[in-house]
């Protein structure tokens, strides 16, 4: 039932910033976590950041101190603020929603490219 629409990717120079958005439509009955994975060619898929229904956050070690995940409950949207971007951050970023009962929903993915 629920759908995710993500946006905000693009091309940015090293040291720059981007903000990803992931908006959920439809009813969310039992949110477990919501956040982003990223996938770069030849690399392992990596959980970048997640936020729980209670507001707890978790980050990959590679992005700690640079990325911040937050939510706007009124808009049913989660944001990933990405600062001090590095070329190694280049990947396709996939928003996801895990629910206790309804399972997992994925966004369409958005490309983030960081040039040196």
Secondary structure blueprint with pairings:
Elements: E1 3-7, E2 10-13, E3 18-25, E4 31-39, E5 46-52, E6 57-59, E7 67-72, E8 77-82, E9 91-99, E10 103-106, E11 110-115
Quick take:
The chain has 116 residues and is mainly β. The protein is built from no helices and eleven strands.
Would you write up a description of this structure?
The protein is mostly beta strands and 116 residues long. Helices cover 0% and strands 58% of the residues. Strand 5 and strand 6 form a beta hairpin. The N and C termini lie far apart (41 Å). The mean pLDDT is 95.
DSSP strand content: over 45%
Sheet with most strands:
7 strands, mixed
Q: Which spans of ≥5 residues are poorly predicted at pLDDT below 50? A: none
Question: Could you report the average pLDDT, rounded to the nearest whole number?
Answer: 95
The count of DSSP E runs of length 2 or more, i.e. the number of strands, is 11
Radius of gyration: 14 Å
Shape: globular
Give me the strand/helix succession.
EEEEEEEEEEE
Descriptive labels:
7-stranded mixed sheet, mainly beta, single chain, 116 residues, 4-stranded antiparallel sheet
